[in-house]
Structure formats: structure tokens, C-alpha cells
Amino acid sequence: MRYIGGKWKATILIHLIEKKRYSELRKACYVITERTLSLQLKEMEADGLITRTVYTSKPPLKVEYELTDFGKTLIPLLHSIAEWGNEAAKTNKKITMVEYK
């Protein structure tokens, strides 16, 4: 739980199953504040779950995030969590289903 515990880490990780630019990730995780997203990304990078690549060869600055090999070991677990959440959303009208890719 040290790696994926907390309110947003699993959500962020499931969106990073495919490599994303920061702006794409920000749009996908629109309910997370920018500060929280930034802090969570830094924690997961420090834990070795994701890598951050900065491209500075020409403006504008481009930053991409992707799962490391260690982070990719979580993919089956993340899919299971998402499936459980979608099933829970079907039976509990207070929960909203969210699509991920």
C-alpha cells in the first residue's frame, strides 16, 4: 500500500498505462488539483513506479510520464480495481463510472 495507497495514486497510475504528456494526464485526471497531481507524480517517481522525461530541445517544454518496468507490474491489479469500481458503480447510484485507457 506504500506505493499505491492514498486517494489518487491508483487513478493516476491507471491513466499512465499508456505514456502521456503532462497536459494529457491533467485532462484525464481533471478532478485532481494541479498541486496534488504534481505531488503524487513526484512521490511515484521517487518510488520508482513512473519515469518523467523532459524534452527541452525546442520550446515549448514537453514533459512525458510513463510506467517503469516495476510500475508495469501493477497493471493487472489496476485493471482489477477498475473493474471492481465499475461494478460498484452499477449497483450504487452515488458512484460515477469512469472510462480509462
Automatic annotation (TrEMBL):
Keywords: DNA-binding, Transcription, Transcription regulation
PROSITE patterns in UniProt: HTH_HXLR
Species of provenance: Sphingobacterium anhuiense
InterPro entries: HTH_HxlR, WH-like_DNA-bd_sf, WH_DNA-bd_sf
Domain HTH hxlR-type: from-to ranges: 1-93
Domain of life according to the entry: Bacteria
SUPFAM superfamilies, A to Z: Winged helix' DNA-binding domain (SSF46785)
Protein name: Winged helix-turn-helix transcriptional regulator
Residues annotated as transmembrane: none
